[in-house]
Write a structure and sequence with these properties.
Elements lengths: L5 H15 L9 E5 L4 E5 L1 E3 L2 E5 H5 L5 E6 L2 E6 L2 E6 L4 E4 L2 E4 L5 E3 L2 E5 L3 H9 L3 E4 L4 E4 L6 E6 L5 E6 L6 E5 L2 E6 L11 E3 L5 E9 L2 E8 L3 E6 L4 E6 L20 H4 L9 E6 L16 H17 L4 E4 L9 H11 L3 E7 L6 E6 L22 H17 L4 E6 L11 E6 L12 H17 L9
Parallel strand pairs: 1-13, 23-24, 23-25, 25-28, 26-27
Antiparallel strand pairs: 1-2, 3-4, 4-11, 5-6, 6-7, 7-8, 8-9, 10-11, 12-13, 14-15, 15-22, 16-17, 17-20, 18-19, 19-20, 21-22, 26-28
Helix pairs in contact: 1-6, 5-8, 7-8
Amino acid sequence: MPSTTTKKTLAILLAGASLLSAAPSAEEKHISVYSPVAIYTLPVLERAGHDYVGLLELLEPLGRVSSQTDGRRWNLRYNAVDAELVAGKTRARIRGRNFDLPAPFLIENSHGLVPLISLSALLPRFLETSVNFHESARRLFVGEVRIQVGFQLDGSNPLRLALNFSAPVNPTISTEPGKLRMVFKRDAVVSPGSQSISFDNKVITQASYSENNGDAELDVAATQPLMASFSNDRKTIVISVVPQAPATPSAAGSQNPAPASPAANITSGSSRRVLAVVDPAHGGGERGAALTDTLAEKDVTLGFARLLRHELEIRGFAVALLRDADTSSTLDQRAAAANVARAGIYISLHATSQGSGARVYTALLPAEGPSKGAFHAWNAAQSPALPVSRIASAAIVAEMQKREFPVRASSASLRPLNNVFMPAVAVELAPGADGVADLTNANYQQRAASAIADAVVSVRDRLGAQP
């Protein structure tokens, strides 16, 4: 097949990821609450033309709260504050003083509902702290929790746009033609002062901010495909242009170069960039292992993958994530995406709450019968690359041991390792000395990501160079 650039390869992968996530149905209304003690979302109910939210549910994560219903009368106690509200009435009594609601108070199944537009004035009477409510976007800020963002464009080569936040952030990041999108669902990010910022640059042209249905969104517009990486303990997101590798020159006089075989890409001393495909396991409705009552494996693998991408990029690799948001795809689709990209190495990332350190897996191939020349059965596609996969696995184990990670290597029938024809490994991250909390600790993940990246560098010459 004709040579392709990193830009085109990544575009194929990202477009595929976009197609795999079907358009959701109409999104239900909700309100996001940001406070120093809890960040949470609650459903918003529409009643008689007004939006309502449960008052007890709103206060419960913030302090001690209880309620009691007596007919149409609803009594609530939050810490030492007493309130009395009556169904169908707009007048409430809080701290012994009257307070007028803009719409009637409602009781449904013993739950007291207050109109959403009352929250700016109502909540300070309970909380005794500042409350800032972005009503149209349904984002509520309790106390000084808002995260500011600033922009710094470095127009040199390579072009970089740094987004500097006043606190760590963890947005979902996706790309589409001409745009990189960051959605902040659990981060109290607020407007940088202007809804749109233009840059005097022909590639990265604009950044725009918007809020809707409890979420904040930052979009960066560009004339070339973009990618994002984290630094500064997730207080900085660096936006840069997807690297482009020069196309391989065809033989003199040849207008249609012959397709390159997978084996032809595993050459020593190649000057071309190597493409690493990093696959954060699970995603979307497939949550993976329940690491705690609230922590799903899919969330750990995505954060881990973003750190590994950064570590590989600074070592000179081109990197594609098979998902950079909470999307799902089948095992066959993951393998097909890596195979179409003709990547140099495929790295699947998992997480577990059992054991400690890390486990590194290579494929355990089934007996699929004899190969037919260059063709291998789908579940044995890994067969030609398996020796290099084992070398890469051993290198990862060695690098992790240098960093005092408990680690072991083994073979497993773990799809889609069997289905990719380039060197492939799976790394499963387990807790460290601090238990399951380590799985979301950026420093712990960074140590593991750095070890994996150093190991991949050490076997670079054995990997397929990007076509």
